[in-house]
Write a structure and sequence with these properties.
mainly alpha, 2 helices
Length: 57
């Protein structure tokens, strides 16, 4: 999550008129990967939580 926070800071501090379109494309690709990783992580946590709840029943 710290990486996503740093990426959002980068977005906030960059001016679009001063950026090369390739740089913006790279930033967008990296942000998609980070968000997908975070989504996958939460899916695993949810699955494990449901499994633990089922085992406890």
């Amino acid at each position: 999550m710290r990486a996503v926070n740093k990426l959002m800071t980068l977005f906030t501090c960059s001016r679009l008129s001063d950026s090369d379109p390739r740089d913006l494309g790279n930033i967008a690709a990296i942000s998609r990967l980070l968000l997908q990783d975070a989504s996958d992580m939460f899916d695993v946590i949810e699955t494990r939580g449901l499994e633990a709840k089922h085992m406890a029943s």
